[in-house]
TrEMBL record:
The lineage of its organism: Archaea, Methanobacteriati, Methanobacteriota, Stenosarchaea group, Halobacteria. This is DUF373 family protein. Keywords: Membrane, Transmembrane, Transmembrane helix. Pfam families: DUF373. InterPro entries: DUF373. The chain crosses the membrane at residues 158-179, 185-206, 227-247, 259-281, 301-322, 328-352.
Length: 377
């Protein structure tokens, strides 16, 4: 038996006519097609239903074993719609009273509905696919879904959109000299905006921004201290940057000649390292607090603030040495202290964690032995 299967992935039939799906049989399918055509004559699924009826009548006139049915998905998205189509195909196959092997001819209105073909193929062999498209717009829908698929595929959009966006940014850069002229200004601005948009789509910045906002929202409503710690750390980073720039400016004012790059870097680090270290300690303490509240805290997590302090001590001493604010003895002592602080914290928390895990293991072993002894008695 050949099953002529008309696919309406977004359930226009159910939403616009109230028909319950799947619709099975020649007369019910014709009734559903007339109802949809009456409700929305411009809907392309009307063509799909009547094309299925046309194929059914043609095969039935040749005395072939044939049945026609309409299956629908929903408007919630591709995955949910595909699953619902699969469930309705199962219902149609279960309703067929025949001892013959069943194959199907899928009738769709374009590329979007054809995404469900693997779902149908997993349930029944497919003899063919008939796409019904209005002649006046034969390639319009296929072009639309091809472009949509390119924009949704991370690998494809990265290789196509990013180079295209960079090329569009070259044009406004070439017009910098004549930026005040109106035609060049308009074209350059338009090209730059389009280039930035394509690059952002190619990198998926919109999705990442949405994911970051969603994580921040969940953290806010969950009462996580990490969010507050990050806000405070950002403020400390800004203060550290300002402090580093002020230190660099004062060093340049006091210097008799031109300041070299190593001294400039040392001045920036010397003025900002305290603030940045405070930001690192703040974020690590916030993370430790959240891990403790969630019951997933491990002792080695407590190393984080000590590592931050160790690195800060080393950077402060090295930058002070380059600025002639400290001697070689202070540098050696700071390097030793920073190294020892990191090593001691690592060893201390490792020993504590091993002792506690060993004690917990002994307690569990003792409980098992007691349970075995009670069972023996």
């Amino acid at each position: 038996m050949l099953l002529v299967l008309c696919v309406d992935l977004d359930d226009d039939l159910g939403r616009k006519t109230g028909f319950s799906t799947p619709v099975i049989g020649r007369d019910p399918v014709e009734e559903a097609g007339v109802a949809l055509a009456t409700a929305d004559p411009e809907d392309s699924d009307v063509n799909v239903i009547f094309q299925g009826l046309h194929i059914y009548d043609d095969l039935d006139a040749r005395d072939e074993s044939v049945e026609v049915a309409v299956v629908t998905g929903n408007d919630e998205g591709d995955v949910n719609a595909n699953r619902e189509v699969g469930d309705e195909v199962d219902t149609v196959l279960a309703s067929l009273s025949t001892s013959e092997d069943v194959t199907t001819l899928v009738v769709t209105d374009g590329a979007q509905d054809e995404s469900v073909i693997p779902i149908i193929r997993s349930r029944v062999p497919i003899d063919g696919v008939r796409r019904v498209v209005v002649r006046q717009a034969q390639n319009l829908e296929s072009m639309y879904y091809t472009i949509k698929q390119v924009l949704d595929d991370p690998e494809t959009r990265g290789t196509i959109l990013i180079p295209l966006g960079i090329l569009l940014l070259i044009y406004p850069l070439a017009l910098i000299g004549s930026a005040l002229e109106m035609p060049g200004f308009v074209l350059g601005t338009t090209s730059a905006l389009l280039g930035f948009y394509l690059i952002s789509r190619g990198l998926g910045l919109g999705e990442r921004l949405d994911a970051a906002v969603e994580r921040a929202r969940r953290s806010l409503y969950a009462g996580r201290t990490t969010l507050l710690a990050y806000v405070v750390a950002a403020a400390l980073f800004v203060l550290g940057g300002v402090s580093g720039i002020n230190t660099l400016e004062s060093i340049q004012e006091d210097a008799a000649g031109e300041v070299g790059i190593p001294v400039m870097l040392a001045a920036l680090v010397y003025g900002s390292v305290q603030w940045i270290a405070a930001a690192g300690v703040t974020t690590s303490l916030g993370q430790i607090t959240d891990e403790y509240i969630a019951g997933t805290l491990e002792w080695r997590y407590l190393n984080a603030p000590f590592y931050v302090l160790s690195i800060a001590i080393v950077l402060y001493a090295v930058s002070a040495f380059f600025l002639d604010e400290a001697g070689i003895a202070f540098l050696a002592a700071a390097l030793t202290a920073g190294t020892l602080l990191g090593i001691v914290s690592t060893l201390a928390f490792a020993i504590v964690e091993s002792r506690l895990s060993g004690s917990a293991g002994d307690a569990e072993t003792e409980q098992e032995e007691r349970a075995k002894a009670d069972g023996a008695h």
